[in-house]
Every structure is written in C-alpha cells, then in structure tokens.
C-alpha cells in the first residue's frame, strides 16, 4: 500500500511539475494580480481536477471520453478559452501600460475571476478526463472508487501546492516584473504560450 502511494506521489510530482496550460494561466494571473491572483487560480485548477477525479471514479469521465461529439465540443471550447485568455495577454503587451493602469495585487484579477478562470481552464479540457481515467485505476486494486477518489484528491492538493508556490515566487520578484519592458515581454510570452496550448488542445485527438 505504502509502496503504491509513494509511486503514485512520485509520478504525480513529475506530471505536475511539467508546465502546461494550468501553469501558464497561473503564472499569467500571478503576474497581473500578484500572489492572490495566482493562488486563487491554483485553487480553481485544483477544484477542477477534483471534479474530474470524482467523474473518473464514478465513470462519468469515461462517458465524456467515449462520446466523440461531447469530446470534440469540450476540446474546442477549451481551446477557444485558452486562445481568448492568450489574446488578452497579447493585447496587454501591445498596448503597454497606460496612465493609471499600473498593476498592483489589489487591482489585478479578483479572487472570483481568478478562481473561475482556473476552474474553467481545467474543466474545459477533456484530456483531463482521459488522464485521470488512465492514471487512477493503475493504483487502485480492483478499481475501488474510494481509493481512486482519494488518490485524485491527493493529486489535486499537490497541484495546488505547486502552483501556489509558483505564485509566491513570482510575487517575490514583483519589483522585476513591474518594470514596463519586462511586463510587456512577460505578457507577450504568456499570451503566446496560452494560444499555443489552445492550438495543441484543438488539434489533439483522443487517447484510447
């Protein structure tokens, strides 16, 4: 049991530390809203993963993955959402900072908005359904629902901890990121990365 838990935790850490759309969005919101923006985005991502965990445990994720129309619709919606967020960042990079438009944690994305963005970003990605469907049963003997849900929630907590750490580190370097040229560069990079992840999601097929 403990060996399986250690193996699952190790694999989870590797997956979580690999940058993806959730990481890109968290960094973007931490840059614009400081620690608060990043941490609440991380919370939204973790809640989304918890929802997919429960869906995988009770077979709902399998239905989403098996239905071609539903999978494609969710995939395109998720890709469009990433492209929309990326376009916002590119627009900010193009405009630069306007008078009275200087970002501070108090003026960045609200807690609700950051939470919502993290949640939608995760729930609108049907590849998460495939991921949890393939990962959790490997560490749950006999396909026990309780075990799969517990492991999935552990994965969600580890994700939150990692993304929150990202946010704290970015907030600690705010003096650097608040410089106009650096800010425009990071907005441009964040926007390009988000659009890139959106394109990759749109072109991705199902895994069986």
TrEMBL record:
It is a multi-pass membrane protein. Its main location: membrane. InterPro entries: LeuE-type (IPR001123). The chain crosses the membrane at residues 40-64, 76-94, 145-165, 185-203. It is found in: Cell membrane. Keywords: Cell membrane, Membrane, Transmembrane, Transmembrane helix. It comes from the Bacteria. PANTHER family: ARGININE EXPORTER PROTEIN ARGO, ARGININE EXPORTER PROTEIN ARGO-RELATED. This is LysE family translocator.
